[in-house]
Each structure stands twice: as structure tokens, then as C-alpha cells.
Amino acid sequence: MFNQISQQAQNLVSLTTKSAAEKSKTKVIAITSGKGGVGKSTITANMAFVLSQKGYNVAVLDADIGLANMQVLLNVRPAKTFFDYIDGHSSLEEILIPTQYDNLTLCAGKSGYEYTKNTNSLVFSRVVTQIVQLDRYDILLIDTGAGLNEYVQEFLDISDEILAITTTDPSAITDAYALIKMLSKTKKKLLICFNHTKNYTIGDTITNSIKDLSQKNRLNKNFMVKYIGSISSTQNIQKAGRRRLLFVNEFKYDVATIDLENVVDKLLRELEKVKKW
Ligand SMILES: Nc1ncnc2c1ncn2[C@@H]1O[C@H](COP(=O)(O)OP(=O)(O)O)[C@@H](O)[C@H]1O
Ligand SMILES: [Mg+2]
To answer: In degrees, to the nearest 5, what angle opens at C-alpha 20 toward C-alphas 16 and 21?
Structure first.
């Protein structure tokens, strides 16, 4: 009897949480890649900054348990990570840490967290839902870490948009295709951005080949793959990184800064299509 009531209470709480999340203005974007080292975290941090400069209130969740480095990129020394919240050692407010940048909040992660402890509990998506429910941020960017494991999938499942970062490297493209194959079963759309690629047309051509392959292999034809631009390689990214600064802020006229600003404009156009705004 007691179990039944407590189950009903839990269902009620989850329903209330769900509807509050649906009413929230926060749009959730997962930034992911099949392969590691493609520039996902660098792009996430700098993209968050560009969006914050445009007046959006942005939060970044570092969900990479392989290499949680968002605190380094945003120059924050977090006392708490979102795993402390999951483990019941801190409040939600304590894990939402202001950065030195206006309108930019970090929810820090931790390398090496034992995911298996929480497998199937959907505890990670609940953290995302609770941040969304605050209705404080316009945009929540999630740096998911590389790969297609269940942990990453949990974050992809709950996101409004998914942005894949890849390079023109054959192994990175193969991984991007594997991502498309998986997402085409459950999602409607994948945005794609090429890093280390100086020419806009190269990314466009490769995206079209990926689409052709998807068609040939009869993946869900309603699934949309949308190319939103490329980012050039530049030494200024490492220069800024070594000083724990963001390259888009330090090197305003660098070609990669201009590339990223174009990518952000395209992303915003996609976000406008998500109902919440
Ligand atoms: N466009 C670029 N030009 C030059 N270096 C880059 C570029 N993008 C990323 N990097 C560098 O590549 C390395 C890996 O980037 P990172 O963002 O950590 O990748 P990921 O998060 O995908 O593992 C970092 O040293 C970063 O400074
Ligand atoms: Mg990373």
C-alpha cells in the first residue's frame, strides 16, 4: 500500500517536473562527436561565449566523463560538480557556477565518474530537466564527451538539438555516420559542423555524401542532416587556451572566430524553429 502511494507521489512529481520543463524557455543543445579530440569542448566554450555576448543567458554542462575540461576553458575552479548534486552532496544552486563572463554559467563535470553506478536510472537527464525547469537560461549547452555509449545517449535523448562536431578525417566521418545511424531511429535532426576545415564547401560536399550514403542504406528518410558550417585551424586557439582564455574573445578578427560566429548565426536560426521561444 505504502509503496503504491509513494509510486503515485513519484509519478506526480515527475509529471509536474515534466510540464514545468516544457513551459521553460531553456533550449537544450547537446554538442557531441563520435571521435575525441575533434575540438568539441573548444567549440562549446567559445560558442557559449558568442551566444552570451549576443545577450542570451547561457549555461554549459560539462558531461564529458572521459576528459572534463570545461572548467579550464572557462577558467573556473569549481568547488562542486554536477556529480556532487547527483550524489546528494550539494544543491542545484551550488553546482551552477558563475564564470568571469557575463551571462555565462558553468555546471562543471568530473573525469572518471563511475557511470555504471547510475545506469538506467535516468539520473543525468533529471539534472538537465531540473536546470531547464529553473527557466533561468535561454540556452543550455551540453558537452557530451566522445562516443556513443549509454551515458552519452541519455544526454542526446533529452536535448532539443544535437550538434555533431567532426573533421574531414575519414575516421571522424565514419564516426559521424555511426551517430547519424543511431539518431535516425529516435530523433528528427542532426546539425553538423566541421572543425579544422577552412573551406565552407568541403563540409557541404562531405555532408551531401553522408546524406547519399544514408539514403542508399535506407536510414529513416525523415531524418534531417543539416550542415551549419566549418571552422578553420588556427594557432591562436592553443595560444588562448594556454592562458585559460577564449579565442573568440582574444582574437576577434581571427578567421576561426569569424567562422564560429557564422556557425552560431546558423545555429540560432535552427533554434528559432524549436517551439520554446
Ligand atoms: N580549429 C582549431 N584550430 C587549432 N586547434 C584546435 C582547433 N580546435 C581545437 N583545437 C585544439 O585541439 C585540441 C582538442 O580540442 P578539444 O576541444 O579538447 O577536443 P574534444 O573536446 O573534441 O576532445 C585542443 O588542444 C584544442 O586547442
Ligand atoms: Mg572535450
So the answer is: 115
Q: Is residue 247 part of a domain?
A: yes
Residue 276 lies in a domain: no
Cα–ligand 2 centroid distance for 67 (angstroms)? 6
Residues lower than pLDDT 50 in the chain: none
Half-sphere CA count of 182, side-chain side, radius 13 A: 19
For atom 1 of ligand 1, the residue with the nearest CA is 233
Domain ranges, residue 151: 2-271
Q: For the segment 118-168, what is each residue's pLDDT rounded down to a tens digit?
A: 666 788 899 999 999 999 999 999 999 888 888 899 999 999 999 999 999
**Model confidence, pTM:** 0.93
229 lies in some domain:
yes
Domain count within the chain: 1
143 Cα to the center of ligand 2, angstroms: 7
Residue 166: CATH number of its domain: 3.40.50.300
Q: Is 256 in the pocket of ligand 1 (CB under 6 A)?
A: yes
| All cell numbers assigned to 88 | 546528494
Among protein residues, the one whose CA lies closest to atom 15 of ligand 1: 39
Alpha carbon distances (Å) from 36 to 11, 73, 124, 172, 277: 38, 16, 21, 9, 32
Ligand 1 center from residue 41 Cα (angstroms): 7
